[in-house]
Fold:
Amino acid sequence: MPFVVFVGVNHHGQSTLLGCGLLLGEDTDSLVVFMAYNEKIPKNLGQYSEYKKIKFALKEAVYDTITKKAFEEKWCSFIDKFELQKNDWLSGLYNERHRWAPTFL
Structure:
């Protein structure tokens, strides 16, 4: 399973870790899904008044679950709690969960 690291340079010219993750495969699609998830959270959820709470709940569902069942329960819980059933981006992420969610890899 490929491990990717995103490194940038800060205003002092020093390398800084921007993010990292495990990919399902070495293909471009796996990298695109990973990058889309990490980069598009503010773009797709930033308009909600409870953005910080939503982002925390999303990350909790993704990174703090060990089983598929726990992931499903946490995901459904935060979707219901914040009434996000009509968010197309989250629906798309959920449909592709087998490609990016650590519990499913």
